[in-house]
UniProtKB/TrEMBL annotation:
Species this chain originates from: Pedobacter antarcticus
Pfam families recorded: Alpha-L-AF_C, ASD1_dom
Protein name: non-reducing end alpha-L-arabinofuranosidase
GO molecular function: alpha-L-arabinofuranosidase activity
Record-level GO BP terms: L-arabinose metabolic process; polysaccharide catabolic process
């Protein structure tokens, strides 16, 4: 057997030993868990979601209106609320995305009949009647038990407008904005902590240079006044390291709490390929883009470390996920796509990366929650389904606010032609009750992998697990077969002599619990 060595990451080395389950079983991936070390808290906010006024995310998604025959609370679907509560979603970003820099919040308050209609010029050119506005969103967050993350308009809005929004939702005492809020039926402030100061300022948020945006940020952020606000600067597009450097250099510590980063996964930006029925090449290329998240976080973090060695400022990956061609026959501006086992691979591998970068990544938001891009929920009329990505998020929720267990991994390569990717990714944590969890992803399309995990002498008594996999990598749940893909009990994990041996099938995600 030919052996090669490649260094992918700081802590990850890889070796090639391409043996599938059909041939002799041989340990290919070796993981060493430093069970006695404390890797710090994995912020639950890494498991955040995103709801933009885009396509069928809000209207005909979350929000069907009070008069709908679909069971709802104040117009928000009860089935969606129940499903998202089961994920413990920690935060929800709204109203965009690109829409945020076109959104004027005062259009969305007061009696619905009096709210002006506008055109959603960004997404599909449809009429936006503003029937879902600030109160609707913030009260929905209460229903969901999640923290709102509001994205302010620094592109087409004014400093005064954003300053007023902060005062409207957060000010306890008497002021023109809090009086207006009370007049509109909300006595108590919502106390929103997370605020985006614009979105993609380098593109749809105003096509600004980083130098120009730094000036804008400083002005807008100064007048966003209130206690305990967490202000996030519009961050880099993928590998625009100059953007991050300019922000870190130009914005004083104390005026900025987070720096954003956006990175999507696809075979290529120009040829995104279909969401279902993709080729092996398209699958491989997508996973290559998804795994690049590790390099991006490492390099952006290194820049942040120069200016903020104490790691006070969070890297906020507030848009990530798979982006493919829209489903045939749907509005191209609505970004509706199916969600397959490929999406589950993107989710599992990306969340492992975030968990392992818990020191710098403090918030992340999957794009998007309902009916848009890599959605966890799809709806059709009264029907609703949970996507494979939903199930990954549900399996991984054990890592929320848990303590990371540092680890090293040596894994084989997933090869296509002369290209290769690391076959397996892993992250691990221990929760407040003392239960340890290991999440493993094997992205190989055809090969199972045997994984041995050295537990460094910790005497665990029992291992339980669940797995998500299917027959084909483009398998998905549809409205006629909503439960085709769902987690199942995982029996191929054996605990013996302080070692765990796991047989992970091709394209699968498993989460193990050790007690
Ligand atoms: O998530 C879809 C869009 O992608 C967002 O509106 C924008 O911020 C990004 O370019």
């Amino acid at each position: 057997m030919m052996m090669q060595k490649t260094t992918w990451l700081k802590t990850i080395c890889l070796s090639v030993m391409g043996i599938g389950f059909s041939t002799a079983m041989q340990a290919q991936t070796k993981v060493s868990l430093q069970t006695t070390q404390n890797g710090g808290t994995i912020s639950k906010h890494i498991y955040g979601h995103f709801a933009e006024h885009l396509g069928r995310s809000i209207y005909d998604g979350f929000y069907v209106g009070e008069k709908s025959t679909i069971p709802n609370t104040a117009g928000v679907r009860n089935d969606i609320v129940a499903a998202l509560k089961n994920l413990n979603i920690p935060n929800l970003r709204w109203p965009g995305g690109c829409f945020a820099d076109r959104y004027h919040w005062k259009d969305g308050i007061g009696p619905k009949a009096d709210r002006p209609s506008i055109v959603n010029t960004m997404w599909g050119g449809v009429t936006e009647d503003n029937s879902f506005g600030t109160h609707d969103f913030l009260n929905m967050c209460k229903l969901l038990g999640t923290e709102p993350y509001l994205a302010g308009n620094t592109g087409s809005g004014t400093v005064q407008e954003l300053s007023d929004w902060v005062q409207y939702v957060n000010f306890e005492g008497k002021s023109p904005m809090s009086d207006l809020r009370v007049q509109n039926g909300q006595e108590k402030p919502w106390n929103v902590k997370f605020w985006g100061v614009g979105n993609e300022a380098w593109g749809c948020g105003g096509n600004m240079t980083p130098e120009y945006y730094v000036g804008e940020y400083r002005r807008f952020a100064t007048f966003m006044e209130g206690k305990d606000l967490y202000k996030v600067a519009s961050g880099a597009n993928v590998d625009d390291y100059h953007w991050t450097e300019t922000l870190m250099k130009g914005i004083p510590l104390g005026l900025m709490d987070g720096v954003a980063l956006h990175h999507y996964s696809f075979p290529s930006w120009e040829k995104k390929g279909p969401a279902v029925g993709f080729s092996e090449q398209q699958y491989f290329e997508t996973m290559k883009t998804a795994l690049r998240m590790d390099e991006l976080i490492t390099k952006h973090s290194a820049i942040m470390d120069k200016y903020d060695p104490a790691k006070k400022i969070g890297l906020v990956v507030d848009e990530w996920g798979g982006w493919f061609e829209v489903e045939q026959g749907t509005n191209p501006g609505f970004l509706y796509q199916q969600n397959t086992m490929r999406d589950a691979m993107i989710a599992g591998a990306t969340l492992n990366i975030f968990n392992n970068h818990n020191e710098r990544v403090k918030i992340a938001n999957l794009a998007q929650c309902v009916n848009v891009l890599q959605a966890v929920i799809l709806t059709k009329g009264e029907k609703m389904l949970l996507s494979p990505t939903y199930h990954v998020m549900e399996m991984y929720k054990v890592h929320q606010d848990a303590t990371r267990i540092p680890l090293t991994i040596e894994t084989g390569d997933y090869m296509l032609g002369s290209e290769k990717l690391p076959a397996v990714s892993v992250s691990a944590s221990v929760d407040a009750a003392g239960k340890s969890h290991i999440s493993l992803v094997n992205i190989q399309s055809k090969k199972g992998e045997e994984i041995t995990i050295d537990l460094k002498g910790k005497n665990f008594k029992q291992v339980n697990g669940r797995i998500l996999t299917s027959g084909k990598v483009d398998d998905h749940n549809d409205f006629d077969h909503p439960d085709k893909i769902k987690p199942a009990a995982f029996k191929d994990a054996v605990l013996k002599d302080g070692k765990l041996t796991v047989k992970l099938p091709a394209f699968s995600v498993a989460v193990l619990e050790l007690i």
